[in-house]
Prior knowledge:
Elements: H1 8-21, E1 35-39, E2 47-48, H2 67-76, E3 82-86, H3 97-106, E4 110-115, H4 122-131, E5 135-139, H5 145-151, E6 152-153, H6 157-171, E7 178-184, H7 193-200, E8 206-210, E9 212-214, E10 218-220, E11 236-238, E12 244-245, H8 248-256, H9 270-282, H10 287-292, E13 312-316, H11 340-344, H12 348-361
Helix pairs in contact: 6-12
Amino acid sequence: MNTSEKPKRALEAETLERLTTAPFTPRADRGVVDFNGFATTETCELSCVFCHFNGPNATKKAKTLAPELVAKGLREVPPGRQVHFAATGDFFQDPHAMDHLQKSTELGHQVHVLSHGQSMPPGRIDEMLAMGVREFRFSVDHIEPRAYAKIRRGGDLDRVLETIAYLRTRKAELPDISVEVNCILIGDTRQRLQEFADFWSTRVDAVHFHAEYYDTLKFRNLFFIPEKRNDCHIQLYVLPSGYITPCCAMMVQSHESDTSWLPHLKDNSLQEAYDKLCDMYEDPESELGKVCAKCQWWVMWSEHKDGESPYMRSVRFDLASVPTPDPQQDEPVAARGSPPWQRFKQWLSGAVASSRDRGRQT
């Protein structure tokens, strides 16, 4: 079979494998430590079909990062820097989640929260906003309730839309709130990108479409295939175990195999961990180097073409041009002094009605 006859996915897999295993000398960018943030817990109430941590075929674990280690790491991050709070499960399954956010905002960090959005009632959102948290990103892989439920098993699309809609109402008071969505290219998403973008255009500030990883270290559904391999950028994440990983790939690999050779936050500063990981990345005989030699996650750091990378396409929207639903509309004057989450209930059903209609049609 010649190249033109091969299925697109098979050709993509073959080309990525060839580029990944071609001779390559890794070089770490040893600049300022790039600390991404914390994945604080492995616990999740969902079982997403593609998830290596809590999916239907995953070996589920339940580690949660000790609060004192989170505090140690936070103290090392300079004020003004962005800190992501996420999880290999869901961040809000960490019983100390709100304490972590409070500590980080008190230290002057720009806090970013990543969640599937199933455990963020209005009261919790109000508490986060009062702390100064302004950046939220949700993992939402479909726009139809039935399809969403098949992908994110145990999840409810309407619940996420309610959360996003509530943040939208608060954005009228706090315009610096940022609400974004991550969407993995799974199922029919690739063929419906414009439809998905249109769906989110009046709800969020941006949607980020991601290629899908599989078998831990491989990728499919890229936006384009790079001409050659490039270096990865060392970006630190603290895992629920306390080990510090240099990338998303090792976050997944750490769940699948023993990676106790990674630096641990208990014994290393972030700078020390960064230096050790840079050394390991450049050494093909190190444990990290051996994983990197067969890992395709380098596509995350490939050069952009036409505004997108092989791994991701981002679409940003101008919500300032979209009228914000008024939760006080047609509301008794006496009720207008009530908390935002109570006023929000007045128009919530309308905010998610289109989602329910889509579900009935599938």
